[in-house]
Amino acid sequence: MDDIPEALRDRATPRQNVGLSEKLPLPLIGIGLVLLSIIGGFSAANLMRPTSKPIVVSTPSPSTTPTPNATPTPTPVENVLGHLPYKEAPTSELSPISADGRILLRKAAAEKYRQMQAAARRDGVSLMSLSGFRSLSEQEYLFFKVKEKRNQEAKKRAEVSAPPGYSEHHTGYAIDIGDGRTPATNLSQSFEKTSAFRWLQNHASKYSFELSFPPNNPQGVSYEPWHWRFVGDTHSLETFYKAQQLKKVK
Q: Where residue 105 sits, what CATH number does that domain have?
């Protein structure tokens, strides 16, 4: 090496750190970069391409908190020709209020009626019990058979008598009252002119009796000054006042 001239020695020795741009022509480098970018884009596209079986991530449904049960609204029961439905009282709960034992009321109502009748007697008034509890068959005769005998339409008959299953008399709490001194007024609106009716107006509420069908009553039943009902305990009160909330037939 010492025999080679210095100028030639420097030219013959290769440089160790040669860049890519010096080894390859610039056009080739540009083509390579373009190919790399194409290959890179293709790889990224493959990564983003959905597989044949997509992964499904299930989202749990939100838990529902049970709400407390609301009080059910009772379904209104329609009346028939202005009369409301009533159940027939069990015979075991009835007690006689007449001397012959044929006129019956529920025990609580019978006890109060006897007290009321005795109080009226002390005041010189005669309360006559005309009718108390009635069975379905008895009411069927009073409505249908009497309607036929009198050649009445059902609507007209319903103004003075309830169809079977719709009479307050079924409950054992209702009673028809007359004046023992003026029997001609029994079961007629003229009863309102008697001393018995006037006494009832002033004293019946003390014994928990009230007039069922006053003039212009909302049920459209004819005025019946003789027809009274007992509302002196929870069952009797519910029997009549719950029934009044029932839907009326138009």
A: 3.30.1380.10
pLDDT of residue 32: 55
DSSP H or E run through 202: helix 195-203
Range of the domain at 113: 79-245
**β-strand 174-179 against 127-131: which pairing, if any?**
antiparallel
Classify the C-alpha dihedral 11-13-17-18 as positive or negative.
positive
Cβ partners under 8 Å of residue 180, min gap 6: 126, 127, 128, 196
Give the tens place of pLDDT for each residue, 40-69. 554 444 445 555 555 554 555 554 454 445
Q: Amino acid letter at 13?
A: T
Answer whether 221's CB lies under 8 Å from 211's CB: no
In a domain, 206, yes or no: yes
Q: Crossing angle of helices 107-122/195-203, nearest 10°? A: 120
10 in a structural domain: no
Q: Which residues does 3 contact at the CB level (< 8 Å), separation at least 6?
A: none
Element (H, E) at 130: strand 127-131
Pairing of strands 174-179, 227-230: antiparallel
The CA-atom distances, in angstroms, between 234 and each of 21, 187, 231, 238, 247 are 110, 29, 8, 6, 22
Q: Where are the alpha helices (DSSP H) in 15-169?
A: 20-23, 26-48, 107-122, 136-140, 146-149, 154-158
- Dump pLDDT digits (tens) for 207-234: 999 999 999 988 888 999 999 999 999 9
How many structural domains does the chain have? 1
Buried b (16+ CB within 10 A) or exposed e, 20-54: eeeeeeeeeeeeeeeeeeeeeeeeeeeeeeeeeee
